[in-house]
Design a protein that fits this description.
11 helices, elongated
């Protein structure tokens, strides 16, 4: 029996399948790693005393600005406080700012977009003009102006970031509402006498929320980044245990004497934002069949 070599055309499907399998494996690994990072940060925020080796206010006066070591993984600051403990305890306020800002901004923006998209006409025009006015101001600048006007506090930081995120949620929800209410099953539901409230609550909103959920997931990283920026500029929460942005601001004056003071809080912010974006991209892929098919 002759040993006939396989032609390139015959090998092509197997080669593509192997490349696709490699891409899926790399994608799954990145999502798993991102999920592990998020889980660890969430645990730090929920149970900081269990993870941090020292109380965040404990001062080692004989080890001021000590470099990273086995005793102090992230070194110590100018008060002799353990930087790793500060980063762990500071994660709570950072996550509170991000989650609360996303909830407030998503609920208000989603409600405005839903009303505008479903009602249409003059209501849509009025709501969208307000949203467009807000969109003319860059988000970080709007949040900075609101935070500066209201003063430094956790509530004001959340409000500033939430207001700056409202336009994005409103436009996405409005687009979803306009698209879904034109579909045949909505017309069929109206034809049998279903009320507008029932159509909105049972047929439109359940199909409109997936893009908002994806946007909120990615927006969580942006909210924490914005909160860290406001804290870095001195508009954050003034507390005994600072958040990541305040830690970064405190460490910027010691970059030559103690680079670790700013480096590790900055890495914590970077790791969280990167991880939440990876998870958000995966969620977007799963909720968007066209995007998933294209990849």
């Amino acid at each position: 029996m002759k040993n006939v070599s396989e032609s390139p055309a015959a090998r092509l499907p197997r080669l593509k399948a192997f490349q696709l399998k490699g891409k899926l494996s790399a994608s799954n690994l990145s999502v798993f790693s991102a999920g592990f990072v998020l889980l660890f940060i969430i645990l730090c925020a929920l149970f900081p005393a269990w993870i941090a080796p020292y109380p965040p206010t404990k001062m080692f006066t004989d080890q001021i600005l000590a470099a990273p070591s086995a005793a102090h993984l992230f070194g110590t600051d100018y008060f002799g406080r353990d930087v790793f403990s500060l980063v762990v305890h500071g994660s709570r306020d950072s996550l509170i700012i991000g989650v609360a800002a996303v909830l407030v901004g998503g609920l208000i923006g989603g409600a405005l977009g839903a009303i505008a998209g479903y009602a249409g006409g003059i209501i849509d025009a009025i709501f969208m003009r307000i949203v467009e006015i807000l969109m003319t101001i860059p988000g970080i600048l709007l949040a900075l102006a609101i935070a500066a006007a209201l003063g430094p506090s956790l509530k004001n930081i959340v409000l500033a970031i939430a207001i700056s995120s409202i336009p994005g949620y409103a436009r996405v929800m409005r687009g979803q509402m306009i698209s879904i209410k034109k579909r045949p099953y909505i017309a069929a539901s109206r034809s049998i006498g279903t009320s507008n409230v029932r159509i909105l609550l049972w047929h439109i909103l359940p199909n409109a929320w997936p893009p908002i959920l994806v946007m909120a997931t990615i927006g969580l990283g942006s909210a924490i980044l914005t909160g860290a920026g406001l804290s870095f500029l001195g508009l954050g929460v003034i507390k005994e245990v600072p958040d990541w942005g305040a830690l970064l601001s405190q460490g910027r004056n010691y970059l030559t004497a103690g680079w670790w003071m700013a480096t590790f809080p900055g890495l914590a912010i970077t790791a969280f934002v990167l991880a939440i974006n990876i998870v958000g991209d995966k969620l977007q892929e799963e909720t968007n069949p066209k995007l998933s098919k294209g990849r």
